[in-house]
Write a structure and sequence with these properties.
With 519 residues, this protein is mainly α. Helices cover 65% and strands 0% of the residues. Helix 5 (166-194) packs antiparallel against helix 6, helix 11 packs antiparallel against helix 18 (475-495) and helix 14 packs antiparallel against helix 15.
Length: 519
């Protein structure tokens, strides 16, 4: 009986809290199942639930850079985007012809002309830019385009149907200039808003800079090879009018059929279904796709980002951007001004003779056109900043070289060749300005500041055309231009952002900071 107190407790009462008595050895458990009354072997890892779950992360800001699809940028689904604004390019082509005519590529004229004849187009462009500010988001861009097409057509008809008519030429220049100024801001903004981020650079550059350079080249081509006899029935002036009529008519037809309004403005007007339909058409689809709704969501974020900004905040953010872009556009105006063309003419006459002007003029126009077209098609792979900085730096060096080489007593040796190279790099320096204009300014003041930038450029060209050119002191102009190109290069390196493949919201955020040193 004394040993009973040392007996093990019943199996039903045995557990881990009561170790077996000394000297007592229980039978080993059978494999597979625990002995009856014994719990299963449990390790701490089986019952330890770990630390409490971390709180959910706040939603990340959506990406501002969009990569092109695997099938590439040049797919049929993106084809309607450049087509929607292509009609405006025809009006810009007519404007390029008038710019070239105003700065000196006009052939022989048989009427008494004054400086008013040669600045009328620039005055009209400034007037048109001012009117476009008053019409911002009040008139559909389709109707603005059609009206401008009619103005260009009427102006072309006036020149094409008259012979050596000075007042008629002035009136036609005013009409064409007003059309270009009126359409510039709305359609540069529209090109940025309808383009996918990975094609915006090419679409905006080819729309504005490239079409203007095509018009300049076209004017140089036919005036340089035209007979100098102004008494003939059909003169070079009439040819310019006929080409303007063609541009106006085709712009009217193309604009009637192809133009698509901005989905951003449709969303701003609470027309979401219209915005979805516009995005669907811009992607060349019969029904909306996932990409359609992704772009719709990004446009909503862009609107929300700008909705929080008051008018004064938008203006204060736009002013530093205006200073940067206006300087680049002023340099563009100075590089294609009447002083540059007169220097080219003077250097050709002194060095090579009058018979060589045709080849040199065509070479200059071709170099300027190539300088625009190469960066335009590389804008979405190389970016905006690299070709701009390269063009500004080389143009700066060439401007100083032209100033140093400008010497009447040495027969302007090498000046004509330098001007051709200068035209190429000056075109490269200005190519990206179209893209920057379409994406830099806050939405609330975008069209107003685009128009103001364009008017500033036209005002500089007007002032240069009014001033008298002194062949003996032409070097001063190139020294001044070289200094301005140097300032432009420094500002571009320090403050111009790289916005390739960025959404409009991301590009605007980049421009809100003045320091942008990354390439």
């Amino acid at each position: 009986m004394q040993n009973d107190r040392f007996a093990p407790p019943p199996l039903g009462t045995q557990n881990d809290k009561y170790p077996p008595p000394m000297g007592f050895t229980s039978a080993p458990p059978q494999p597979g199942y625990p002995p009856q009354g014994h719990p299963a072997d449990i390790t701490p890892a089986d019952t330890y639930e770990g630390p409490p779950p971390a709180p959910p992360e706040p939603p990340r800001d959506p990406l501002t850079r969009v990569e092109p699809p695997r099938d590439g940028c040049f797919t049929q689904k993106n084809k309607p985007q450049p087509e929607a604004v292509g009609a405006a390019g025809l009006i810009f082509m007519s404007g390029g012809m008038n710019i070239a005519w105003a700065i000196g590529f006009r052939g022989s004229i048989g009427y008494q002309s004054t400086k008013h004849n040669y600045v009328a187009w620039f005055i009209g462009a400034i007037i048109g830019a001012g009117v476009s500010c008053l019409l911002t988001n009040k008139v559909a861009k389709k109707y603005v385009l059609l009206f401008c097409s009619v103005l260009v057509t009427i102006g072309g008809l006036v020149i094409a149907c008259t012979h050596n008519n000075g007042p008629g030429t002035v009136a036609a220049c005013y009409l064409d200039g007003i059309a270009n100024g009126l359409i510039f801001a709305p359609f540069v903004a529209l090109a940025g808003e309808i383009s996918v981020p990975y094609k915006r650079g090419m679409i905006t550059c080819t729309l504005e800079q490239l079409f203007y350079s095509v018009g300049i080249l076209l004017q140089i081509l036919y005036t340089s090879s035209w007979t100098s006899e102004y008494r003939q029935a059909f003169t070079a002036e009439n040819m310019k009018g006929a080409l303007s009529v063609v541009c106006g008519v085709f712009a009217f037809i193309r604009g009637s059929l192809k133009i698509i309004e901005s989905p951003v403005l449709m969303l701003a007007n609470n027309d979401e279904q219209g915005a979805i339909d516009a995005l669907r058409r811009l992607q060349n689809r019969s029904v909306p796709s996932e990409e359609t709704y992704d772009q719709l969501a990004e446009h909503k974020r862009y609107l929300a980002h700008n909705k929080d900004m008051s008018k004064s905040q938008s203006i204060s953010q736009a002013l530093p951007t205006f200073a940067r872009l206006a300087l680049l556009r002023v340099l563009n105006a100075m590089s294609i001004s009447s002083f540059v063309i007169l220097t080219l003419y003077f250097s050709i006459i002194v060095s090579y003779g009058l018979a060589s002007t045709t080849a040199w003029y065509i070479g200059f126009g071709f170099c300027r056109w190539v300088g625009n077209i190469i960066p335009s098609f590389c804008m979405d792979c190389l970016g905006r900043k690299k070709p701009t900085c390269l063009g500004l730096l080389v143009s700066c060096g060439l401007s100083f070289a032209l100033g140093a080489q400008y010497n009447v007593y040495s027969l302007m040796s090498g000046v004509a060749g330098l001007l051709l190279v200068f035209g190429f790099f000056a075109g490269m320096a200005s190519a990206a300005t179209s893209s920057y204009l379409s994406e830099a300014y806050p939405l609330g003041v975008k069209q107003h500041f685009i128009a103001l930038t364009f008017a500033t450029e036209m005002f500089v060209m007007l002032i240069i055309n009014v001033c008298d050119y002194n062949p003996l002191e032409g070097s001063t102009y190139f020294y001044v231009m070289g200094a301005m190109y140097l300032v432009g290069f420094i500002l571009a390196v320090v403050s111009l952002p790289e916005t390739k493949k960025m959404t409009l919201r991301g590009a605007q955020i980049q421009f809100s900071s003045f320091l942008n040193t990354r390439f």
